[in-house]
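Moderator note: this is an archived Q&A kept for reference. The question asked for a predicted structure of one protein chain; the sequence and the answer are reproduced below.
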Amino acid sequence: MRKLVYYVGVSIDGYIAGPGGEYDFYPVPDDMATWNPYPESIPAHIRERVGIPVDLPNKSWDTVLMGRRTYEPGLAEGARNPFGHMKQYVFSRTLEPSEYPEVEIVATDPVELVRGLKQQDGLDIWLCGGAELAGALIDEIDELVVKSYPVLAGSGIPLVSGKFRPTLFTPRRRQEFSNGTLVTWFDRT
C-alpha cells in the first residue's frame, strides 16, 4: 500500500513559512544545497537551474498534494504546472477547476481522496503543504520527513493546524548538516 509522506521544512519554533508565505529565511548550508533524497520535490520550472534533468524519473513519489496557498507562489512565477512530472492535486474551495487544467482542483474531503489514492498502484504520495491540509490529513500521514532549520520565525504558518490531535511518530533516521539543520525521518507509531 502507498504511504502519505509529509516532507517539509520548519523553523525551530514550528513554522513552515512566514505570515505572508515566506520561506526564503531558512539558512541552507553549502553541504545541504546539493543534498536532495527526493529530486521529484523540485518544481519542473527550476529543475534545470539546479542541475536536475527535467526527464529524471520519479524515485519516491508520483503524486503530490498541496493546498491553494502552497500552489499560489508557483502561479505567481507563471508555474501553472509546478510538478508536471507527478499527478498533482490542489485542494481549494475557491479555485475554479476549468481555469487550472494543468492540475486537479479538489474541493471535497481530502481524507477520502487520500484513502483512495493509497489503494492504487504507484509510488508514495507527497504531502507538499500546507498546514490546514496537513491538519485535515493528520490521521493519514504515514511518514514525516522534517527539515528543522536553526532559525526562529516568530510567527507564520505552523507545521500543522486544526484540531488538537496528539499523534505519535517514531524517529527512524536523522541527518545533521554543518549549520545545525537537522533532517529527521519519522514513522507513524
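Archived answer notes: DSSP finds four helices and ten strands in the chain.
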